[in-house]
Specification:
The chain has 450 residues and is an alpha/beta fold. The chain has 3 domains: 5-121, 2-Layer Sandwich (Gyrase A, domain 2); 138-214 and 385-430, tRNA modification GTPase MnmE domain 2 (Four Helix Bundle (Hemerythrin (Met), subunit A)), CATH 1.20.120.430; 217-376, Rossmann fold (3-Layer(aba) Sandwich), CATH 3.40.50.300. It has helices at residues 27-33, 88-100, 110-117, 123-134, 138-149, 151-175, 187-216, 230-238, 281-296, 312-321, 359-369, 372-377, 386-407, 412-430, 436-443; strands spanning 5-8, 17-23, 35-37, 47-55, 58-68, 79-85, 104-105, 218-223, 256-262, 265-271, 299-305, 326-331, 349-350. It has a 7-stranded mixed β-sheet, covered by helices on one side. A 6-stranded mixed β-sheet has the order 9-10-8-11-12-13, sandwiched between helices. Helix 4 packs antiparallel against helix 5 (138-149), helix 6 packs antiparallel against helix 14 and helix 7 runs antiparallel to helix 13 (386-407). The two termini are 16 Å apart.
């Protein structure tokens, strides 16, 4: 943290401008060495200077240089940003000069990592930065802004405050039992307080899982036997000819993906190879991949053919997906009906992709299943990362242990241990407690200039 780091912060390629960021105690001095214009060391904070980047006496580029002095910067260190003309050769040459004059190439996400370590942002706000960069929909952008603004962090801070009040009351009763003006805590009173807290925690977990859907989207696998219309459904949903469609069984041999948005939530639609027993080596590989997609997907669309009797393979395939979120779709309702569903398969969506009938009903079913309309119009003050959700559930587990201990008439100090563990798990979400390995892992997924 004592050295000065630099990286190109904009995507490399041809463009109007590129930005090279420098942060650290020597940032201003290092840039000043290669800048021909005003003396940057004498400039006020948050000012922009016009000039040129030079290599000895050779002009490299005409630039604008922003000088921002600590602590009112993103990293809370001295920060300089060089606005150059876009282009790989120009930006790389300026970066090279900075490295030759004492800066070090930043690791992935190191600017954001320094912002966290210097107290500028917490881990939820760091997630918000990354989510904002990666946001594919308007809803995801709004959620990211709320994370970045600190609104979501306040949810966790308020939870911890409520929990610490319960812990403090227990501490006082343990340490000062002789004080008559202290509220005496009974097991039933503690349990009521913890139960109320538990309900709030459960609600935040539910909303966090909704937030994960908004940022990561829904992975949808279309499965079924060959020639039921899986590729046609993919093409219809995407409104493009993404997959090859023929009457020949086994045309799709590999996984084909496409992306769309429903109610502001991104969906990754995966067309899989038709699942059947086969001796064809290539087709068998495709079938194995299809079965793996069932495990990975958030939703399975299981397609059947209205014009064929149900087969043993259909029932076997349904048994693979019946315990996952799934929608049964019967295609080709424009043809003669030969399909009779077994009792265990209920509430199918009927459609004819050829005649563009019923696909809207399928979309509506997905909206209702994941409550997407509510997500797109709600407050969006949610956590959203898998790490945060895992820690919330860990915190909830400690709360449930505390309630169980009360029910078993365990000593109050045993109950207190579980409550403190819950409080610490919440602290990990915002980074009140952390390990170096965790921080390195979290920020490694950022790009170099962030």
């Amino acid at each position: 943290m004592n050295d000065t780091i630099t990286a190109i912060s904009t995507a490399q390629g041809v463009g109007a401008i590129a930005i090279i960021r420098v942060s650290g105690d020597s940032a201003i001095d290092i840039v000043n060495k290669i800048f021909k214009g005003k003396d940057l060391t004498k400039q006020k904070t948050h000012t922009i200077c016009y000039g040129h980047i030079v290599d000895k006496n050779k002009v490299i580029d005409e630039v604008l240089v922003s000088v921002m002095r600590a602590p009112k910067t993103f990293t809370k260190e001295d920060v300089v940003e060089i606005n150059t003309h876009g282009g790989i050769a120009t930006t790389n040459k300026v970066l090279e000069l900075l490295l030759l004059n004492g800066a070090r190439l930043a690791d992935a996400g190191e600017f954001s990592k320094r912002a966290f370590l210097n107290g500028r942002i917490d881990l939820i706000e760091a997630d918000g930065i990354m989510n904002l960069i990666e946001a594919k929909t308007q809803v995801a952008r709004e959620l990211s802004i709320n994370q970045l603004s600190g609104k979501v962090s306040n949810l966790i801070i308020n939870l911890r405050d409520k929990l610490v009040q319960i812990i403090a009351n227990i501490e006082v009763n343990i340490d000062y039992p002789e004080y008559e003006d202290i509220e005496q805590l009974t097991n039933s009173k503690i349990k009521n307080n913890i139960e109320t807290y538990k309900k709030q925690l459960i609600q935040i977990i539910k909303e966090a899982e909704d937030g994960k859907i908004i940022t990561e989207g829904i992975k949808v696998a279309i499965i079924g036997r060959p020639n039921v219309g899986k590729s046609s459904l993919l093409n219809n949903l995407l409104d493009e000819d993404k997959a090859i469609v023929t009457d020949i069984e086994g045309t799709t041999r590999d996984i084909i993906e496409g992306n769309l948005s429903i109610s502001g939530v991104p969906l990754t639609i995966i067309d899989t190879a038709g699942i059947r027993k086969t001796d064809n080596v290539v087709e068998k590989i495709g079938v194995d991949k299809s079965k793996k997609q069932i495990e990975k997907s958030d939703l399975v669309i299981y397609m059947l053919n209205n014009n064929e009797k149900i087969a043993k393979e259909d029932i076997e395939l349904y048994n693979l997906i019946k315990n996952k979120k799934h929608i049964v779709v019967i295609n080709k309702i424009d043809l003669e009906k030969k399909l009779i569903l077994p009792k265990e398969i209920k509430n199918p969506i009927t459609l004819s992709i050829l005649n563009n009938m019923g696909v809207d009903k399928l979309k509506e079913k997905i909206i209702n299943m994941f409550n997407l309309e509510k997500l797109s119009t709600s407050d969006l003050t949610y956590l959203s990362s898998a790490r945060s959700i895992a820690l919330l559930k860990k915190s909830l587990n400690y709360i449930e242990n505390a309630i169980e201990n009360i029910n078993n008439n365990s000593p109050i100090d045993i109950v207190e241990i579980e409550l403190k563990n819950s409080w610490e798990a919440l602290g990990e979400i915002i980074g009140q407690t952390y390990s170096e390995e965790l921080i390195d892992e979290l920020f490694s997924r950022f790009c170099l200039g962030k």
